[in-house]
Design goal:
The complex is a heterodimer of chains A (276) and B (263). Chain A has 276 residues and is of the alpha/beta class. Chain A has nine helices and twelve strands. Chain A has a six-stranded mixed beta sheet with strand order 5-6-7-3-8-9, with helices on both faces. In chain A, strands 2-1-4 form a three-stranded antiparallel beta sheet, with no helix packed on it. Chain A has a three-stranded antiparallel beta sheet with strand order 10-12-11, with no helix packed on it. In chain A, helix 5 runs parallel beside helix 6. The longest helix of chain A is centred in the middle third of the chain and has 14 residues. The two termini of chain A are 31 Å apart. The mean pLDDT of chain A is 88. By secondary structure, chain B is an all-alpha fold. Chain B has one domain. Chain B is built from nine helices and no strands. In chain B, helix 2 runs parallel beside helix 5, helix 4 crosses helix 9 and helix 5 runs parallel beside helix 9. The chains are: A alpha/beta (276), B mainly alpha (263). Chains A and B meet through helix 2 and helix 3 of A and helix 1 and helix 3 of B.
Chain lengths: 276, 263
């Protein structure tokens, strides 16, 4: 396995009873990146994250995370994965007890960093965990996950439930915690919250990865323009907006224009099956 | 810190508050009981009973032990608050199971015994100073069949270990009910076979108890001798093989839950 690859998925298939979800899914994740996992509702984002985390088992193909099969759930691999799920009730205890309970399992847990992240998130560590609000709980677990120094952080809708200042704090803290050794995979619907954070992006559609590349490949090659009249079929993509049509064109040498935003990229790629 | 120790420590942190309350309940029950007995003995002139601790030890061992066992397993396997954390804990299923099983099967009886001894060491001298009744320090080894009691605890508790990994909700009640049904069915099947045997050997129209009464004394002694020969094997089956089989089945069930239900 390539040293830079954190995860490798080859020909993976998975179904929920009679509902097939993935068939022959293949992609890889390289370390040192913050991946954004995007997809429509029911595209299988959470399922894919659970497969990577060893919580669900693939029914076909191969899946390896840090050179191991996550299905085997070895302690060495689980000690390198922190999974922040979308729903996570916290136990009835205070932070001090929670840390004493779980940090022995994560050998590289950095208590100072945890205190720093908690302070940046304005968390009251004397408050009982089960009495925290959804956003506070999320921030608490995020601080824990980042301080655990796990090499793979999987986050399912991490900004759901966060207020506006917390979203900014989230982006700043995640970006500051990133290193060459780590890889973050963030599944989200709230692409605007993540725009400045995630790159590359993985787009799942109809059980396939239709895009798994850095955003610069698109922003270098294409440009958005606002035109007042319907451009017809002479453009790669058009969308009716207030005051005209937003169109996507191939970027000519030196041509300037509005840069592509993540939401538009997502819509275009899903509509065009991942190809422009 | 080894993962196993970390798992045990985790159980302690989760259960600490409830265990402190449980310990307080034991102390209060022991103190209340001893005080009442002392008052009755002193003012009614009746002899002071010496076996209070010995009488209260088995109920606490069984009832408390079973409740703790069910909580240990069912909370982590099926309770939303703990399920995900337990699933993603960097430890093997064997370590996870063993930490819980050893706490329930070994640590609990040992700690309870020590706790009873220590409680009696505090309560008895205090009451002696007040009531001048003879101090009866709890000595587990002086109890009749202390080790048989522990062995029975091991058997019964193994049933509840399995039950708490099988049933998602109300594991305690469901296990007790399932166990009762299994016992009743076994007894019914046993009687059925005995009835068939009697009918085959002695013909129709003879009742079971009448048939047993007709068995010659010598034959009955021979039968009892044969039963005695199999007694050791029966005890081995009861106190060793059945609990081990139950524990192994519970381990596989935990593995299955971790692989499927816990997500």
């Amino acid at each position: 396995m390539d040293h830079y690859r954190v995860a490798e998925v080859d020909g993976l298939s998975f179904s929920y009873k009679h509902t097939p979800l993935f068939k022959d899914l293949s992609f890889s994740l390289e370390r040192g990146n913050i991946y954004g996992l995007l997809g429509k509702n029911g595209a299988g984002k959470s399922t894919l994250l659970k497969l990577l985390g060893g919580q669900l088992f693939a029914q076909g193909g191969t899946l390896s995370v840090m050179g191991e099969n996550p299905q085997r759930r070895t302690p060495s691999l689980l000690g390198e994965i922190f999974y922040l799920s979308e729903e996570f009730p916290l136990p009835r205890m205070k932070s001090q007890q929670y840390l004493a309970m779980l940090t022995p399992f994560y050998g590289r847990f950095d208590h100072e960093r945890f205190a720093q992240y908690a302070a940046e998130f304005d968390l009251d560590l004397l408050q009982r965990l089960d009495q925290m609000s959804l956003g506070q709980k999320k921030k608490y677990l995020l601080a824990f996950g980042l301080a655990s120094n796990c090499r793979l952080l999987i986050m399912d809708e991490p900004t759901n439930g966060l207020d506006i200042p917390s979203k900014r704090q989230f982006r700043q803290i995640v970006a500051s915690a990133m290193s060459e050794e780590r890889t973050f995979v963030i599944s989200t619907h709230q692409v605007r919250d993540m725009e400045a954070l995630i790159d590359p992006i993985i787009i799942l559609d109809q059980g396939r990865v239709i895009f798994n590349e850095g955003l610069d490949t698109l922003t270098d090659a294409y440009v958005m323009d606002l035109v007042s009249v319907d451009p017809g079929d002479d453009v790669l993509y058009k969308e009716k907006v207030l005051g005209g049509w937003m169109v996507l064109r191939s970027r000519a040498q030196g041509q300037s224009g509005q840069s592509l935003d993540l939401e538009t990229i997502f819509n275009i790629l899903v509509e065009k099956g991942g190809r422009l | 810190m080894s993962r196993f120790i970390a798992l045990v420590k985790r159980e302690w942190i989760i259960g600490r508050r409830d265990l402190v309350i449980y310990a307080a309940v034991i102390i209060l029950v022991l103190l209340g009981n001893e005080t009442l007995q002392s008052i009755i003995a002193r003012y009614a002139g009746t002899p002071f009973p010496q076996e209070v601790y010995g009488t209260l030890f088995p109920p606490f061992l069984f009832v408390g032990g079973i409740i703790i066992t069910v909580a240990l397993f069912a909370d982590d396997l099926f309770k939303k608050e703990n399920q995900h954390t337990f699933l993603m804990l960097p430890a093997t299923n064997g370590e996870k199971f063993l930490s819980k099983s050893l706490l329930a099967m070994v640590a609990y009886p040992v700690v309870l015994t020590v706790f009873f001894v220590l409680s009696s060491l505090v309560i008895e001298p205090s009451l002696y100073l007040i009531f001048k009744n003879p101090a009866a320090i709890f000595n587990p080894f002086a109890m009749p069949a202390f080790f048989t009691l522990i062995a029975r605890y091991w058997v019964i508790n193994s049933i509840f270990v399995l039950g708490s990994t099988l049933f998602r909700k109300m594991a305690l009640v469901k296990t007790a009910l399932a166990f009762t049904i299994v016992v009743l069915l076994s007894v019914a099947i046993g009687f059925l076979f005995l009835r068939l045997f009697v009918t085959i050997r002695m013909g129709r129209g003879i009742g079971l108890f009448e048939a047993l009464a007709r068995v010659e004394r010598e034959r009955l002694d021979a039968m009892m001798g044969a039963i005695q020969t199999w007694k050791v094997a029966g005890q081995l089956l009861n106190y060793l093989i059945i609990p081990i089989v139950l524990q192994i089945t519970a381990y596989f069930r935990l593995t299955e839950v971790e692989a499927t239900d816990a997500v």
